[in-house]
Design goal:
EC number: 1.11.2.1
Keywords: Oxidoreductase, Peroxidase
Order of helices and strands: HHEHHEHEHHEHHHHH
Strand content: under 5%
Shape: globular
Bound molecules: 2-acetamido-2-deoxy-beta-D-glucopyranose
Enzyme class: oxidoreductase
Oligomer: single chain
CATH class of the largest domain: Mainly Alpha
Structural class: mainly alpha
Number of helices: 12
Radius of gyration: 22 Å
Number of strands: 4
Organism: Nemania bipapillata
CATH topology of the largest domain: Chloroperoxidase
CATH architecture of the largest domain: Orthogonal Bundle
Protein name: Heme-thiolate peroxidase
């Protein structure tokens, strides 16, 4: 029964061609004022800034979350409902029917270390945008289009930084599921969900302003985002976070075939690689 794991990867973190500025009809961008609640999740903050969910950051009921994620991002009601189920634990009251955005700030409940745009709680404020942290993240987004590998690299880099320097670093298997959903969110919201790429300018604009990038030409996608789409994309991201590769790409089969005595192989690591793939290279050597 894979569903519980699948569901847990569909995180609240998901929600964490014009020359003139174009606002979204009926949903102008109005940043939080005093008394408005915001939280660690840039997407929920953004939806509140546009009034897709309640602007004051309160009263996130199932109905309101489904409506807001549907209208703002074209998320399927079932997907939004799963995300609500994951977020409602943030309200400590028994049988709560709503949560507020600031309730998401509680460290190590849903909010976690090594996020792409927030400091670890150990180092500072864990819920407001942190430019230093985001600059580290951006350094792994090399080029005008962010692909799944770049996203994965920034995720892993943030984790490694936290693991190395934050003595209170916590990142459980459940955190990993939430984190995968958060990190893939920019592709889901603003990118190409088939090729798993997204325009870097849109993503930076979104994180840095907590604003939907409509003035950069973005429009809400016309195809509905469903549970299974998210599962497919988080699966691809999970694969991309691995630090091992599928094949011995550094050891060309053709090069080995031309050099049956391996005279060029000096490094121990190369030798180990060859041993690991011995069965595969042997047939090439035989052919030469
Ligand atoms: C909260 O949202 C619900 C809809 O889900 C609505 O019926 C209710 O009036 C709202 N409460 C407040 C205090 O805004
Ligand atoms: C919460 O719901 C459970 C199950 O429906 C019920 O037994 C319990 O009394 C409720 N608690 C409160 C504080 O309403
Ligand atoms: C931003 O993050 C850095 C690195 O974690 C930290 O040193 C700094 O204190 C943070 N700033 C704030 C305002 O929390
Ligand atoms: C996605 O990739 C395919 C194959 O590389 C390409 O033909 C297609 O144009 C790409 N789609 C977009 C929207 O860039
Ligand atoms: C990304 O979006 C910006 C703003 O609309 C645009 O100027 C730029 O050409 C886009 N980049 C790519 C690679 O499509
Ligand atoms: C992830 O990798 C596994 C093993 O290589 C592969 O079977 C699977 O199709 C990949 N999943 C995605 C979504 O790319």
């Amino acid at each position: 029964m894979r569903f519980p794991l699948l569901a847990s990867s569909l995180t609240i973190g998901l929600a964490c061609g014009q020359t003139q500025p174009l606002s979204i009809p009926g949903h102008p961008w109005i940043p939080a004022g005093s008394g408005d609640f915001r939280g660690p999740c840039p997407m929920m903050n953004t939806l509140a800034n546009h009034g897709f969910i309640q602007h004051d950051g309160r009263n996130m009921t199932r109905e309101n979350v489904i409506k807001g994620l549907g209208e703002g991002l074209n998320f399927d009601p079932a997907l939004a409902s799963v995300m609500f189920d994951q977020a409602i634990i943030a309200n400590p009251e028994p049988n709560a029917t709503y949560f507020t955005l600031d309730q998401l700030n509680k460290h190590n409940l849903l909010e976690h270390d090594a996020s792409l745009s927030r400091s670890d709680a150990y180092f500072g404020n864990n819920h407001v945008f942190n430019q230093t942290v985001f600059d580290q993240t951006k350094s792994y987004w090399q080029g005008p289009v962010i692909d799944i590998n770049m996203l994965a690299n920034s995720k892993v880099a943030r984790q490694l930084t936290s693991k190395a320097f934050n003595p209170t670093y916590v990142f459980t298997l459940l955190t990993e599921e939430f984190s995968l959903g958060e990190v893939i969110a920019p592709i889901i919201a603003f990118g190409d969900t088939d090729n798993l790429t997204v325009n870097r300018s849109l993503v930076e604009y979104f994180f840095e302003n907590e604003r939907l990038p409509s003035e950069l030409g973005w429009k809400v996608r016309s195809d509905v985002v469903a549970l299974q789409d998210v599962a497919r994309m988080t699966g691809a991201l999970r694969n991309a976070t691995k630090l091992t590769t599928d094949s011995a790409t550094t050891v060309s089969k053709r090069a080995l075939g031309r050099n049956p005595h391996f005279g060029f192989v000096t490094g121990v690591s190369k030798l180990l690689t060859i041993l690991a793939y011995y069965g595969q290279v042997e047939s090439d050597i035989d052919e030469s």
